[in-house]
């Protein structure tokens, strides 16, 4: 079992220059991470589907520099310098320096782009931090070729977590668990692990993301997580996440889609209930979010087609359904849900399997 100390790079050599490129996907949590302790340790375990189409593609150019007392990097977003992203990257480098002491030896050019529209309200922190972490691990592997594949991916997830918690679930695997859970072998608070006992009912599961509100979030996830400190329902919620993870583990293995729906929708509403009951309190759903939820319930009751929803910390709705009912559900979305989306926009995605080197 890898511990925090194992991720401190100690022996490595030096290179003059190198270039790497990785893409990493977004992910959608089924059991949600909401609340954290020091050092990006989650207050409860979570599990997510890795997405396939919504991703960040990041190229990293590395050049050795003479002094090594500060971080040095240029940041390009869609080919243009992007100063407002730099503090986040600076903070990320500071957090991971202990584990990657070679970072100050190099100047970096980070050139990044997303496959989804920037202002879509889809968080790019998970895919963005995962793609950057993969590139940094490629650098580490170049200066220390002895590291194993297993270590490479576990440390990439460990580093991504320090950038943004949910990013550690965007590295490897179709379904990923992050956080200690008694029933999941090898699970860790430090990095995500692949969960592979998946019934064929969940293979190629679909996620159509309905863009209800593309505006800036009212509350950042970081502030949101913080509101779970001294939250009146926090302890019960953290315990419930463990229970729901036990249940969903069994459900994903047995293929029981009806039970899957109950846990996933309840988790989404619980996440929003936590926001509504914190101090200060927030409502991140919009009227159209509720319209969509009600339409989904009505459609499901009327047709018995197993479609359900989940939510992130925002107003957009992720519509989840088996591949076998794709045609029916897309028709339903076209006929009844598109009208609730901003400018009629939605994104068709499905389960994918993690970061890729380009
Ligand atoms: C609601 O991973 O964005 O999407 O660790 O502060 O970067 P930080 O938070 P972040 O939180 C995501 C919260 C969530 C639920 C989830 O993805 O599990």
Automatic annotation (TrEMBL):
Pfam families xrefs: MDD_C, MVD-like_N
Superkingdom of the source species: Bacteria
Domain Diphosphomevalonate decarboxylase-like N-terminal stretches: 24-181
Keyword Disulfide bond: no
Keyword Transcription appears in the UniProt entry: no
Mvd1 C-terminal domain: residues covered: 209-337
Keywords, ordered alphabetically: ATP-binding, Lipid biosynthesis, Lipid metabolism, Lyase, Nucleotide-binding
PANTHER family: DIPHOSPHOMEVALONATE DECARBOXYLASE (PTHR10977)
Name of protein: Diphosphomevalonate decarboxylase
Source species taxonomy: Bacteria, Pseudomonadati, Bacteroidota, Flavobacteriia, Flavobacteriales
């Amino acid at each position: 079992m890898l511990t925090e100390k194992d991720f401190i790079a100690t022996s490595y050599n030096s290179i003059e220059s190198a270039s790497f490129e990785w893409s990493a996907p977004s992910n959608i949590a089924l059991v949600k991470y909401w609340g954290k302790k020091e050092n990006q340790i989650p207050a409860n375990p979570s599990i997510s589907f890795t997405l396939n189409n919504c991703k960040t593609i990041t190229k990293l150019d590395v050049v050795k520099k003479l002094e090594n007392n500060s971080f040095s990097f240029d940041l390009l977003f869609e080919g243009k310098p992007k100063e407002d992203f730099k503090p986040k990257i600076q903070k990320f480098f500071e957090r991971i320096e202990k584990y990657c002491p070679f970072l100050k030896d190099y100047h970096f050019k980070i050139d990044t782009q997303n496959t989804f529209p920037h202002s879509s309200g889809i968080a790019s922190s998970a895919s963005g931090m995962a793609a950057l972490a993969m590139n940094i691990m490629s650098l580490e592997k170049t200066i220390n070729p002895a590291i194993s594949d297993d270590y490479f991916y576990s440390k990439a997830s460990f580093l991504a977590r320090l950038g943004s918690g949910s990013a550690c679930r965007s590295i490897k695997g179709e379904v990923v668990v992050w956080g200690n859970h008694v029933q999941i072998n090898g699970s860790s608070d430090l990095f995500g692990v692949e969960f592979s006992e998946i019934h064929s009912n969940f293979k190629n599961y679909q996620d159509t993301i309905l863009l209800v509100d593309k505006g800036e979030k009212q509350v950042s996830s970081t502030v949101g997580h913080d509101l779970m400190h001294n939250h009146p329902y926090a302890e019960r919620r953290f315990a419930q996440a463990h229970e729901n993870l036990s249940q969903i583990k069994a459900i994903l293995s047995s293929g029981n889609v009806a039970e899957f729906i109950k846990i996933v929708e309840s988790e989404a509403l619980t996440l929003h209930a936590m926001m509504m009951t914190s101090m200060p309190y927030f409502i991140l759903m919009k009227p159209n979010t509720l319209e969509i939820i009600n339409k989904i319930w009505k459609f499901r009751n009327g047709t018995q087609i197993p479609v359900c929803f989940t939510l992130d910390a925002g107003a957009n709705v992720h519509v989840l359904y088996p591949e076998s009912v794709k045609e029916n559900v897309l028709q339903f979305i076209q006929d009844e849900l598109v009208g609730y989306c901003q400018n009629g926009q939605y994104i068709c995605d499905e389960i994918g399997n993690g970061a890729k080197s380009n």
